[in-house]
Amino acid sequence: MVLTVMCVIAARAKLVPGKAQSIVEMLIEFVNTSIIQNTLGLRAGKQYAPMLITMFFLIFSMNLAGVIPGLNLSGNSVIGLPLLLALWTFATYVIFGVRKHGVVGYLKHETMPPGVPKIIYLLLIPIEFLQVAVIRWASLTIRLLANMVAGHIMMVVFIGMTHALLFSGSALIALSPFAGALAIGIYGFEIFVAALQAFIFTMLSAVYIQMATSDEH
């Protein structure tokens, strides 16, 4: 669906953009400037821009599904999609890191930062290797999944509370407008979180790629 919408907007692109085209172009420019170029630079950023822009739009749109009536559940509220996106990031930074440094050089680059006393490497190497091999992609998965699940639970709780108070048949009905206001506030907050989590995930992916492909830490 996301791909279809983007293809339709691209096919109908005009020199003077309409509302939909303007929003898409604004978001692409934001991701390209604030995330890609600031993290990877202008030259390297062009190489990874298609991946990172696609990732941002996919995460953002899946997150927004959680606040769309009739859908009410973010695609990132189940582990499959966050895990797939995190493994995409993992595969990208490992493949391009190995391509630039070689297998041995990449492992050394990621696990043996310069300027550290040699005795410290005995402790540092396994920790850094675990971070590269597991912690990065696992933390990306858990962060996105947990935020979307938490937001969904909060919305369900306050909407359910509003209904319970409204049909309680007691004096508690007077509290239903306050519970409803809180539900609307959380609804708006979830839209903000949807964009924020897309930004954070994409930013961290760019940072991990930059760390893997940089000349030095």
Automatic annotation (TrEMBL):
Name under which the protein is recorded: ATP synthase subunit a
Predominant cellular place of this UniProt entry's protein: membrane
Source superkingdom: Bacteria
Gene: atpB
Keywords: ATP synthesis, Cell membrane, CF(0), Hydrogen ion transport, Ion transport, Membrane, Transmembrane, Transmembrane helix, Transport
Record InterPro entries: ATP_synth_F0_asu, ATP_synth_F0_asu_bact/mt, F0_ATP_A_sf
Signal peptide: none
PANTHER family listed in its UniProt record: ATP SYNTHASE SUBUNIT A (PTHR11410:SF0)
Protein species of origin: Brachybacterium equifaecis
Membrane topology: Multi-pass membrane protein
Cell membrane keyword on record: yes
Keyword check for Membrane: yes
Its job: Key component of the proton channel; it plays a direct role in the translocation of protons across the membrane.
Similarity comment text for this entry: Belongs to the ATPase A chain family.
Transmembrane portions of the chain: 48-71, 78-99, 119-138, 150-175, 181-209
Protein localization: Cell membrane; Membrane
